């Protein structure tokens, strides 16, 4: 298969990761790989004749190919693909930019493995994007088809928004007619017409707006959310200092996802999103009342977020400037407007915008390889952490229906067409931001809720606590912080939390409550006595494996201690992500982002020295999640995990791989390479030993250094994804506690017996959030190694190796 990839529509972070993954996967699968510059416009412009043949022949002119290193000729085709370009071809500039001379007049360019080297950390799209009016016309698409056929390309990967994907579908549907017309005009031969009877096409959604239906996340949306939250976090301090109000306008056109998630993650006071507009006649009063209430309890700062496509229930646009005037005039607040504009698009892709586009790019190539004339064009999407394929036009149609529903003022329909997470997040926003005048629940249903952090700190713990506290206050419950874990409980380090007291906790890393690794069996009887003393009706523990173990002990303790006959939950929060069954713990995204940032800097240093291998040690206990996903997010070439361990054969192959890989690098173009090693992957082959071994074996080819990321992986400010997930899961925990508390109220006060289901862990499994009772989790736990028996990410190790061509490089020895 000859496959081309293009990026189209507005740029977004992660598009480069798509191109990298598509090119690499396609080469591995034996395809010839091409990129199209400037989106569909490049397809229409094609290659000027003089350039075409020189670069389309497999072994033809090597104007852009650097000579092979001596002694590597026997590696054959793979090396040819490895070095098809010179690795700098596109990075130095495309088209008319200085340094882009090699690409002038060429829009459809054959690329090799090394052309996409290091593309991970670059924002935007290196192959260019454009909006093409020509491609919207039949004539334009006819020329585009001709250009593809001239180069022999029969498969296309398109990464863009709904417009681009519609264009892709139109192109594929028309393809047979386009081919027929080209044949009729004698522009192609009969053989070409037969060979190109069908076009294979697959779409990936590159859009910062997260506006596509049937996928949880579009490529670039998480990074845009990072940029927005960074800005709001910065604004927070000045707003607080001057007691100001800020009205922020964020991007998102018809989709309020960015505004909503920013509102949730940054603890905004009010948001305006198109899917759920405020009442046209009353919103000014409602907003002012709400903000005044916040000010009355002592809030010094006010943050209002306005989506650029926001409007009221009569579809009259709501502009940031107008909101500012309302706040200034009615409440007398010193109010400023900040329009974030294009800063939201830019910058380095966050970890999620490296991992997901990589997985989606791999899936895109597989979908193309499996495609037949009868299969629909697929859009590659994601649900929770599962990569999905859905018929492209179904997704586009559903997306268009949202805009349609909004234009018809059918807002409930618009909300229902968004993913369930969207409405949950909106509910989460109200629950955590609105200060009600009256509690929602009657007295007899109100609880005294204990909240504790257990184990090591992890990003999102404080956000989860804030959400629980705010929810409690809204309902009429009393939230109690137990500081310093079970030790703190025994020391009576217990305090009631207030609505305002947790206001700034969304952005705080570490643990505001203080954590402790001690389990309740330090003195179970005394712990029970404290539960009784404080008359807790419900208990939420936020933490890692220790929290899970603690819950297990408390549940078992119910037999002897009636005080534990209350609903109890564990919300997993640990950077190690080692709680059994759940695929994500709070803090793991923050940690991956900290790792990506550190590794980008390390790689830059390693690349500056050209031929340096950095062995980077990661935390994670006996769980290889961070190391494996970190390797996928940074393009590391080797990963060592505790699940797999390290042995001599492995190390011998690793050295062999590195030697061959460095030998294959074009002269003067060696790059720094990363090796990630989990801190306890082996007791013998330590980071130091491996570093020295690589240094010794590398000889003239490469040098080696080590770096330990240590506690930096706990991250500073929690990532927006961890914060948003914390709110969502925490509120589910609270609803769970309420439900089971109400069940217990039906029993007689003297002989209350909590059901086993009422001691449970909230887990993310595939596409859903599931409650699993703690005793059921035990059978999935490897208690000795403190991790789950099954590690879903373990398969990604193979992908890490595939994406550095390890099997090919080792096999051809
Ligand atoms: P973004 O979400 O960033 O706006 P988009 O992909 O929706 O991205 P559009 O400008 O709508 O951006 O589309 C990008 C390009 O896709 C257009 O310039 C055009 O070349 C092509 N395209 C869009 N719709 C069609 C269509 N119906 N038929 C053919 N081509 C189309």
From TrEMBL:
Is Transport among the key words of this record? no
Query: Pathway, according to UniProt?
Result: Carbohydrate degradation; glycolysis; D-glyceraldehyde 3-phosphate and glycerone phosphate from D-glucose: step 3/4
Please list the cofactors this protein needs.
Answer: Mg(2+)
> At which positions is ATP bound?
10, 131-132, 161-164
- Enumerate the active-site residues: 209
What does the record give as the function of this protein?
Answer: Catalyzes the phosphorylation of D-fructose 6-phosphate to fructose 1,6-bisphosphate by ATP, the first committing step of glycolysis.
Instruction: Give the matching PANTHER family.
Output: ATP-DEPENDENT 6-PHOSPHOFRUCTOKINASE (PTHR13697:SF4), PHOSPHOFRUCTOKINASE (PTHR13697)
The name under which this protein is listed is: ATP-dependent 6-phosphofructokinase
Q: What is the native source organism of this protein?
A: Trametes coccinea (strain BRFM310)
